[in-house]
Amino acid sequence: MKIKNQIKLSFMSIPENVTLARLAAAAFASQLEFTIEDLEEIKVVVSEAVSNSIIHGYDNDPNRVVNLLCTIYDDDVLELIIEDEGQGIADISKAIEPAYSTDPERMGLGFTFMQSFMDTLDVESIVDKGTRVIMSKTVPTRMAAASETISGNN
Ligand SMILES: Nc1ncnc2c1ncn2[C@@H]1O[C@H](COP(=O)(O)OP(=O)(O)OP(=O)(O)O)[C@@H](O)[C@H]1O
Ligand SMILES: [Mg+2]
Fold first, then answer.
1. DSSP conformational letter for 81
2. What is the number of the ligand closest to the CA of 57?
3. Whose CA is nearest to atom 24 of ligand 1?
4. Atom 25 in ligand 1: which residue has the minimum CA distance?
5. Structural domain containing residue 40
6. Which of 10, 19, 82, 145 makes an SS bond possible with 49, Cβ 3.0 to 4.6 Å?
7. Tens of pLDDT, residues 56-87
8. Which residues contact 127 (CB under 8 A, 6 or more apart)?
9. What is the DSSP secondary structure assignment for residue 45, as one 8-state letter?
10. What is the Å distance from ligand 2's center to 50 Cα?
11. How many domains does one find in the chain?
12. Phi then psi for 17, rounded to 5 degrees?
């Protein structure tokens, strides 16, 4: 896979920057042929991951840094990496389970959205070191292009 474009955004861990991050990621993703619906879903997953870094990773300390790395591979793959140097996750598979939260006030659905809206989700985390969430989504092959390829092969 060849890198076609890449941006990196590092920002303070304040709620205002959740909006900044989601808009930046969606604007970047719009360089690929995603639908409006795809772009809305990309905004949701970036919001969820960045909010997690701020709320859980940094316990709402505003003076920490969250990184967002967005990469386009080839002509159709978007990769999003959100990372923090916060408290980390002790049990990643449990954290990803739907409706699991360490905060009884929360729904525990952030990772569920990430999993359902993106094609891949990987979570790397070390307690007291931080968390990295890696997600990717490939632009679906359009029906017209697919049928052209099929008839071209005949
Ligand atoms: N960046 C992070 N650093 C530390 N812990 C995290 C991080 N991201 C997620 N977690 C842990 O994983 C759990 C599940 O995260 P998830 O986003 O699915 O749910 P939630 O944040 O608790 O609730 P919701 O996203 O619905 O508000 C969190 O409760 C938290 O314990
Ligand atoms: Mg969450």
1. E
2. 1
3. 108
4. 110
5. 3-153
6. 82
7. 999 999 999 999 999 999 999 999 999 999 99
8. 87, 88, 89, 90
9. H
10. 9
11. 1
12. -80, -10
Contact 70, 78 (CB under 8 A): yes
Catalytic residue numbers read 48, 52, 106
**Which whole-number Å values give the CA distances from 5 to 27, 31, 54, 76, in the listed order?**
13, 9, 27, 11
Break the chain down into helix, strand, coil percent, rounded to 5. 40, 30, 35
CA-proximal residue: ligand 1, atom 11 (nearest)? 95
| Pocket (CB within 6 angstroms of ligand 1) | 48, 52-53, 56-57, 84, 86-89, 95, 100-103, 106-111, 131
Atom of ligand 1 nearest to the CA of 84: 1
| pLDDT, tens only, 16-45 | 999 999 999 999 999 999 999 999 999 999
**Which CATH number does the domain housing residue 34 bear?**
3.30.565.10
Please tell me the number of the ligand nearest to residue 113's CA. 1
**Which amino acid is residue 79, in one-letter code?**
E
